[in-house]
Design goal:
By secondary structure, the protein is an alpha+beta fold. It has one domain: Immunoglobulin-like, CATH 2.60.40. About 15% of the residues lie in helices and about 60% in strands. The chain is built from one helix and six strands. Strands 1-2-6-5-4-3 form a six-stranded antiparallel beta sheet. A hairpin with a 3-residue loop joins strand 3 and strand 4.
């Protein structure tokens, strides 16, 4: 069973996220991940991953959090297939 997806933000300096399936990419300005409810893009400044446990679906990010943007599961699946199909042509 998937862990429930929750996001807890503490003072825009720390985000605790559950239900994380995969971290797609990250740098000082953004963290892009896949959750059991779809994609999540986090924008900010001086971001770093403080804790990552994919077995339990937990992620902790620290830094200045500016925004969170969700995408739905259908968009993620469609993008993944499109990207893979382009690579294997």
């Amino acid at each position: 069973m998937d862990a429930p997806h929750n996001v807890f933000i503490e003072g825009r300096q720390k985000a605790k996220i559950s239900g994380v399936v995969e971290v797609m990419s990250f740098n000082d300005d953004s963290v892009n991940l896949s959750t059991n409810l779809g994609g999540l893009a986090i924008k900010g400044k001086d971001l770093h991953i403080n804790k990552l446990n994919l077995d339990e679906g937990e992620l902790v990010i620290e830094g200045t959090i500016i925004s969170l943007n969700y995408t739905n599961k259908e968009n993620i699946k469609g993008q993944s297939r499109g990207l893979l199909s382009k690579m294997f042509r």
